[in-house]
Specification:
The chain is mainly alpha-helical. 73% of the residues lie in helices and 0% in strands. It has one domain: Rna Polymerase Sigma Factor, Chain: A, CATH 1.10.1740.
């Protein structure tokens, strides 16, 4: 509850033009927005552009933002990010894909040896290629949850879904991923 109150206070101050409050909101949201956006776009430069557009829109629209309930600010910011990702694809070629080698590393630790780097990269490629087998809605829910760092209620707000629907999509997506991983593991057994 403390974080929500702090976020409300920062939003209120930022709405009044307090740049330091906006900077704190930006610092808190940037990692998740960037990770989510980077996984949805083909290049780092595209992701950086969309993140910049997202936060510029947040600053410009902040005076109109209204609290609905817990998590609504984060959901609102990610909804803006989603809209800017969609706008990117409307402006670009319809079949742009993300090269797996360029996808960001979602791990929290840095590999210590070249072998660890190779293993970590291979796992990342495998996980991202497996996620791409899911329906677009389930991909979106997974990316917002695990790369964007949103809670289910925030995802529900960002996607205009019921929270139970988000939970169902997340549960089914994880079950599908596990099923795909299990099938692939059976295939690779000697």
């Amino acid at each position: 509850m403390y974080l929500l109150e702090k976020e409300k206070k920062l939003v209120t101050q930022a709405k009044k033009g307090n740049r330091q409050a906006m900077a704190q909101l930006y610092d808190g949201l940037f990692p998740g927005v960037y990770a989510y956006t980077r996984l949805r776009l083909p290049t780092t430069a595209d992701a950086e552009d969309v993140v910049s557009e997202t936060f510029l829109a947040v600053v410009n629209c902040l005076p109109d933002f209204q609290w609905e309930h817990s998590g609504s600010f984060r959901a609102w910011v990610f909804q803006i990010a989603r809209n800017h990702v969609a706008n990117f694809y409307r402006r670009k070629e319809p079949n742009v894909t993300i090269p797996l080698a360029e996808a960001p590393d979602a791990s929290l630790t840095q590999p210590s040896t070249p072998e660890d780097t190779f293993i970590q990269t291979e796992r990342k490629h495998y996980l991202l290629s497996t996620i791409r087998h899911l329906s677009p809605r389930r991909q979106e829910v997974l990316l917002l949850r695990y790369f964007g760092g949103l809670r289910n209620n925030e995802i529900a707000l960002a996607l205009s879904l019921d929270e139970r629907t988000v939970s169902a999509h997340l549960s089914r997506a994880l079950a599908e991923l596990q099923s795909i991983l299990d099938k692939n593991q059976e295939i690779t057994k000697p």
